[in-house]
Amino acid sequence: MENYRENFENEQELSLQDYLRVLYGGRFIILASFLAVLVSTAIFTFMSEPVYEAGATILVEDERSVERALFDVNYLSQQSTMIANQVEILKSRTLAERVVQSLEAAPYRDSLEIFQPLSDDSYLV
After folding, report:
1. CA–CA distance from 74 to each of 60, 70, 71, 79 (Å)?
2. C-beta pairs of 83-89 under 8 Å, 24+ apart in sequence
3. Where are the chain's structural domains?
4. Residues 86, 88, 94, CA angle at the centre, nearest 5°?
5. Contact (Cβ atoms closer than 8 angstroms) between residue 86 and residue 60
């Protein structure tokens, strides 16, 4: 019985060389799988439409906010309305156009990256 257990334990031991031999035997399958994933990822990356996203945090301060919060019953609804108005103003296209116009007229216009020519002699703005 003990001989059987010793033989069983000896048969179960695998060396690093055994693992490498198995990997070497399947090298073409491993390489083909890697290349298939690489090519499909590259195709997906170049074919998908780029998505640009930006985020910002705005702090709107009200000088009288503490005293108004204590004594004005309608303060919270007015505060949320004021913040919503400020956010909509910041989202507006008119404001963006005015910012671009003021940057175009700025004396440091040539140092701004957005006004630098691209490789095909076109501009971002």
Report:
1. 18, 11, 9, 9
2. 86/58, 86/60, 87/58
3. 2-47
4. 105
5. yes
Distance CA 90, CA 85 (A): 9
pLDDT of 42-80, one tens digit each? 999 999 987 777 666 666 666 666 556 566 666 666 667
Is this structure's pTM higher than 0.70? no
Q: Which two tokens stand for residue 20?
A: 């490498």
Task: Record the tokens describing residue 43, joined without a space.
Answer: 């195709």
Give dist(CA 26, CA 67) in Å, integer: 76
Could you tell me what percentage of the chain is helix, strand and coil, using 3-state DSSP and rounding each to the nearest 5?
65, 0, 35
Cα atoms in the 13 Å half-sphere on the side-chain side of 20: 3
Kindly tell me the sign of the dihedral angle through the C-alpha atoms of 51, 95, 81, 55.
positive
> Do residues 117 and 100 touch, judged by C-beta distance below 8 A?
no
Q: Cα(first)–Cα(last) distance of the chain, in Å?
A: 85
